[in-house]
Amino acid sequence: MAYHSPVSTGMRGRCPRCGEGALFKGFLAFNDHCEACDADFKIEDAGDGPAIFVIFIVGIVIVPMALGFQLALDAPVWLTLLIWGPILTLASIGLLRPLRGIMFNTQWVRNAREVKRDEFK
Ligand SMILES: [Zn+2]
Fold first, then answer.
1. For residue 81, how far is its CA from the centre of ligand 1 (angstroms)?
2. Number of neighbours of residue 111 by Cβ within 10 angstroms
3. What SS3 class is residue 18?
């Protein structure tokens, strides 16, 4: 079976094999398997990887915008936090799911998994 782009299926939260079944059973929790094609999702786990990308994207793109806002308008700190706090929070939460899907699907398609100690013998 041909695989779909892990970026495309991951962003949409779809199965990396068929591109149809739901990848997530909650907001961030993965299903055990695909309801459409029965692909097994138990082996892979994206772990903390997606959070690192969220931190990089939010830290590089949005934090400088908040600092620029404060410096350009000479705004008080409370106003900067009031405006940019929710934006930072929503951007972080909004990016986490698609990035988690992309990373999980990339690992799944490439059959990446944790190497156990006894596999080195
Ligand atoms: Zn599937």
1. 42
2. 8
3. coil
Nearest to 54 by CA among 87, 99, 109: 99
d(CA 88, CA 38): 37
The model's pTM is 0.80
CA of residue 28 to ligand 1 center, whole Å:
18
DSSP 118: G
Cα(41) to ligand 1 centroid in Å equals 10
Region of residue 47 (phi > 0: left; psi between -120 and 50: alpha; otherwise: beta):
left
Question: With 80 as the cut, is the pLDDT of residue 3 above it?
Answer: no
User: What is residue 24's three-state secondary structure?
Assistant: strand
Q: Which residue type occupies 39?
A: A
